[in-house]
Amino acid sequence: MTVPTITLHETRPDVEPGLGALRGYLRDILGRFEGRPGTDDDVGAFMAEYPDDEGLVPPQGVFLLATDAEGAVLGCVGLRHRGPDVPLDAAEVKRMWTAPAARGLGVGKMLLAEVTRRARDAGRSRLVLDTRADLLEARTLYERAGFVETESYNENRHAQVWYALDLR
């Protein structure tokens, strides 16, 4: 397998191509929740329940895409500096996703390293995130990057595991 050239760049999660990446993330995640592929209706319901994407644009945060040389989306991640559930000293990782065809290429590691750098550069002392217990690939990525399990910091009904990374 040839590893593509991967480029990271900022975009908005509410317009293309960021919106397409967010839909891919939601279809994949909702498919895991429900045991079936997520539909457009599922995506719409989820986005209505969690309308926090405004927190993923400057100055509250950032939304990043990983793309290949042809512009195909390989993954995405959001970083939220402010929000009702984000601890004051922390930034929060949101919408971390690697497209199924790009898994194993280091996309997730690259995205996570970039949001970690940005949180540190913004003066945050911690990086936090939530996930599900059954997302073993994601949990392995977070743990290898130094995240440790912590107490719940939000009321996300889909979350089962919470992580924090000390940035000091």
From TrEMBL:
Listed SUPFAM superfamilies: Acyl-CoA N-acyltransferases (Nat)
Keyword Glycoprotein attributed: no
KW Transferase (keyword) present: yes
Ranges of residues in domain N-acetyltransferase: 20-168
Keywords assigned by UniProt, alphabetized: Acyltransferase, Transferase
Domain of life, per lineage: Bacteria
Coiled coil: none
Pfam families: Acetyltransf_1
Name the UniProt record assigns to this protein: GNAT family N-acetyltransferase
Natural source organism: Actinomycetospora aurantiaca
